[in-house]
Amino acid sequence: MQITFKALVFYLNMFFVCNVLWAQNIYNTEVNAKINIEKTSEFVTFTATAENLMLSDLSLRYEFMVFKVDGNNNSSKTSQANRFFLKGNEKKILSSVTVNNNSNDKSILLLLIYPLESSDDNQGAIGKDRIVVYSDGQGGLKIELDNEKKKVEIQEPRDQDTSEKDGLFLEGLVIQKTLTKPGRDFYRYFYSEYYNKQIKSGKNILIEEVPGQRRSTRISVKVDGQLVWQFFSRPQKKFLMDMANRALDRSIAYLQQLAQQKQTITHY
């Protein structure tokens, strides 16, 4: 979809004028909208995610828009939109776009999340994230964040082999202390979902297995030292996958609780 540069500027100005009366903390209090960034040697991938910060399930819709302006001030807009459902405390990947790492275009990425029943695209959004991506003049890219408007360089990704082997994800660790194959399988299912949901936390998660009743073992999941889930193991795949999903839901809920407590203390 081709649009003129003036039309692009007008559209963006009107959108943010319509939202200027909305305080910053109105957004992302029930559903957190976030655009994650992953850089490889040739491309940068922007992934739109939504995280339910509530215990109740939500029916929602999103719009993920990308505005591009090239060196000749030619502008274009692409948009991806769809309905989706979030369980309580669930985090989900909605969509993604990829940009060439050597691109000289300026791109504005805007993610908006609405309640499904909302029909007002200006004031109905409950989740929002926006970043601006542009060339740093040296063959790389820089971004401007929506919240603090700080210019930061996109970081190179971590070593993928080390990351997946040790369970390293940003500052937090997913630590495995298992004894049996079912315990290792549970860890693998848990970490796979943890990674796919792009959970970012500085808190360590410990998966520990100890001898239990009879021939069974007891598997526990602790977040920052706090027990959030435990069960007696079984070798069945379906059972272990179900336990992994339940344990991850409890872990996410506790991480959100810690984040909200920290925010409350900071504001106080």
Walk me through what this model shows:
With 268 residues, this protein is of the alpha+beta class. The chain folds into two domains: 31-154, Immunoglobulin-like; 174-266. It is 25% helix and 41% strand. The protein has four helices and 15 strands. Strands 1-5-4-7-8-9-10 form a seven-stranded antiparallel sheet. The protein has a five-stranded mixed sheet with strand order 11-12-13-14-15. Helix 3 packs across helix 4. The longest helix is centred in the C-terminal third of the chain and has 31 residues, at 237-267. The chain is elongated and about 75 Å long. May be involved in the biogenesis of curli organelles. Pfam families: CsgE. Keywords: Signal. It comes from Bizionia paragorgiae.
